[in-house]
């Protein structure tokens, strides 16, 4: 058996960040979760939905964000391509960077690995380069795993959250 065969059968634990700031935002996230499950991907945990201002332009509609922990036998490339297809099914279209979108799904953590490479036209940076500064990632991730450690920074999530500004700490709410 080749090494690749072994890797393809490996169970991967992955944190995905879901976000939407256009249309029926909660419904967009729920549809994303449903489509992920329909791909045969097991959702082990999911956070509450959180509301934050759009960044960097606060004049854009507020975001609703969530984090899910999935278990999959898909390798990173196959998972990434499935995620991109799901975003399109929900209605995501190509837009300017940081502009409003119906659906955004980012791979936050893939088995605790540090990954920097290209896949087609996309640059994969896992963990996400700025995730440790983003309340909309840290709060829901903390809800799922209070002991999570940033793979690259080797820093516990509690410390990362303590480094957020008071504006970031106050600028996030649980969606009702």
What is the strand and helix layout of this fold?
Blueprint: H1 3-8, E1 12-20, H2 25-38, E2 42-46, E3 50-52, E4 63-72, H3 76-90, E5 104-110, E6 115-119, E7 122-126, H4 135-144, E8 149-150, E9 155-156, H5 157-162, H6 166-170, E10 172-174
Antiparallel strand pairs: 1-4, 1-5, 2-4, 3-4, 3-10, 6-7, 8-9
Give a description of the structure.
Residues 1-5 have low confidence and may be disordered. The protein is an alpha+beta fold and 176 residues long. Strands 1, 2, 3, 4, 5 and 10 form a six-stranded antiparallel β-sheet that branches. It is globular and about 45 Å long. Helices cover 32% and strands 29% of the residues.
Sum this structure up briefly:
The protein is α+β, with helices and mostly antiparallel strands and 176 residues long. The chain has helices at 3-8, 25-38, 76-90, 135-144, 157-162, 166-170, and strands spanning 12-20, 42-46, 50-52, 63-72, 104-110, 115-119, 122-126, 149-150, 155-156, 172-174.
The unreliable regions are 1-5
Mean pLDDT across the residues is 90
Number of helices: 6
Major sheet characteristics? 6 strands, antiparallel
Could you tell me the number of beta strands? 10
CATH second-level architecture: 2-Layer Sandwich
Q: Give the oligomeric state of the chains in this entry, treating copies of one chain as homo and distinct chains as hetero.
A: single chain
- How many domains? The number is 1
CATH superfamily: 7,8-Dihydro-6-hydroxymethylpterin-pyrophosphokinase HPPK
CATH class: Alpha Beta
Shape: globular
The proportion of strand residues reads 25-35%
**Helix coverage percent:** 25-40%
Order of helices and strands: HEHEEEHEEEHEEHHE
Query: Termini distance?
Result: 51 Å
Taking Cα atoms only, what radius of gyration do you get, to the nearest Å?
A: 16 Å
CATH topology: Alpha-Beta Plaits
Q: Please state the structural category.
A: alpha+beta
